[in-house]
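Repro case for the chain-ordering regression, as requested:
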Amino acid sequence: MRIGAGLLLLAVLLPLFIGNNYQLGIAHQALILILLASGYNLLLGFTGLVSFGHIALFAIGAYTSAILVVSYGLPFAVGLLAAALLTGVAGVLIAIPALRIKGHYLTLLTLALGEVIRLAIRGMESLTHGAAGFTGIPRPSVLGFTFRSGTELYYLLLACVVLGVLFIARLERSRFGRAFKAIRDGETAAEVCGVDTAAMKVLAFGLSAVFAGVAGGLYAHTMRFISPEFFSLSLTITLLAMVLIGGRGTVLGPVVGAVLLTVLPEWLRFVKDYYLIVFGLAIWACTMFLPQGLMGLAASVVARVRRPA
Amino acid sequence: MLQTLLQVALTGATMGCIYALVALGFTLTIAAAGVVNFAYSEWVTYGAYIGVTLVAVLGLPLWLGLLLTVMLCAVLGYGFQLVVFAPLEGKHFLTTVSATIGVALAMQAAATLIWGPYALTLPTFFGSGSLTIGGVALFPHSLLIVGMTVVLIAAMQLALTRTDIGLRLQAAAQDPVAARLMGIPIRRMRTLAYCLSAALAGLAGFMVAPLFVVTTTMGFGLMLKGFAATIVGGWGSLKGAVLGGLAVGLIEAFGAAYLSSEYKDSIAFAMIVVVLLLRPSGLFPERIAEKF
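-- result from build under test --
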């Protein structure tokens, strides 16, 4: 809780310290990815379902909002809401076959579904402009106010992130959060204890999809350009790494992971290829030596300081 | 009409054999050790790059290059067993997947550093000409791929069912605990499986290189097709991997020729989805990996 408040204070004050639009742009990306990673963590970290198709949901959200706002002239709020709804429905649809299969089958099924969706988006040229990408997406505007400057946009995104993270923090303590974790730790045991595992898995898929949809809609209106190439498997791997390195199954883990993995590549731009080697090895080392990620490490350090052995 | 049909069938069979080799190596570690190896893509890529280095840079004859590539890849597999897989034994699926993904990323970036970002090429055994028989263009290299795959799979089938070490490998795969009680060294059998798997990956990389170009991402694309072959054929089944690979290659070629070449890349993924929804055990299941 205290760490969360500290991070929030830092985030609120951040625009005072970064001057140029380029850095603000990176901050925008980090905020959107926090939202995406937090939703993914619901699935991967809380419920223990390894989906590799999550980026496709992000893409559906981005394209839904872009198409509705640009091609049909609807307001941003409607586009974003529709993105959340449609992506949520897509998440539930993916969950239905996913109920029958487990483990690696689920991972490969979602990977394949994600690629099919991405290629379908690329193929539907009249709707999505295909491989050329979708341009001219307007900045968000709500009730006549347009978030035109980088700083205004930053606070809009931050507000969404705070709402999202608070929702997950609340969810974790609820009966649903406990049910998710029970499924992760032992599905049969959870079932025996009266958890409706099927319903809970569908709920986890649906909720994480809604997060992806909102993040996608915000991404489209922040970047103002989207193309199918962006939503590829390498982004799936980055997303996985954010949750794993930050700490899966913790509320703040994806936040830390998303910020770290968005900012670090920018700082280490001058050693690009070496960065990727280190990035890969970091994922490996993290899964081997820090299975609970950085937040897990922080928690155990705090516990050790408080109770010296 | 018939010529087109034959041409497409030949293309499909060639790619199918490559997919079969890729899927076979990929399945071997699933069957023998229960490990889904996402770094397999880099084994294929490194096979191709090592081949290019030996043949194009060091000027070795092609056959020697092929032999050395396969051997070096087997050594790579041995190293992997020591560094990556031994500590992963008994760990959760997510741990294995993310650890191997991390290693794969690092290896891919290292390949860019070592061999540069530009595509390289590897010559074939027979030059770039093609024979034309009855209006169908035949690339000798394609025929070599088909022939080599058939011989290799037959040899492997014989080795697995007729030799002592093959039977031990099967036993270790089917029931590690019982096999250990019978005095079979499980660890050594798994090491053998990793070496064989990497050797097959290297072979696939080397053989496919002249058909396309060698890039740092070539292995990843092939591994995705290998996934499809594994799912279509039946998880952990060696027979299924081969038949699944052929099925994916043929259906992809016919789909691209007669339906839509634009959606060629999604055919393999669509096959994964359809098979998993309708028949999750695959089309040619085998009992070998049931314990996992």
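Ordering looks correct now. The first strand of chain A starts at residue 141 and ends at 142.
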